[in-house]
Amino acid sequence: MSSFFTDDTSADAATAPSAEGESLVPDTAASADGFRGSTANPTVNLVVIDPDDVARNRIVEALGNDVSSFPLVDDLIPYLNGEPIVMVLGPSCAVDGTLNSVERVIQAHREIGAILVAEELTTNLLQQALRSGVKDVLASPADGQQLTEAIGRVTSTLASSPSTPAGEDDMFEDDGELGQVVTVFSTKGGAGKSMIATNLGVTLAQRSDKPVCLVDADLQFGDIAVMLKLSPQHTIVDAVSSLDRLDASLLQNLLVTHESSGLLILPAPLEPAFADQIGATEMMQIVEVLRRFCSFVIIDTPAYFNDVVLGMIEISDEVLLVAGMDIPNIKNVKIGLQTLRLLNTPMEKLHLVLNRANSKVKLDVTEVERTLQVSADILIPSDIVVPQSVNRGVPVVQSAPRSGVAKSLEDLASMFTPAISGKGRKK
Ligand SMILES: Nc1ncnc2c1ncn2[C@@H]1O[C@H](COP(=O)(O)OP(=O)(O)O)[C@@H](O)[C@H]1O
Ligand SMILES: [Mg+2]
Question: Staple 6 to which of 33, 155, 215, 276, CB 3.0 to 4.6 Å?
Answer without folding.
Answer: 33
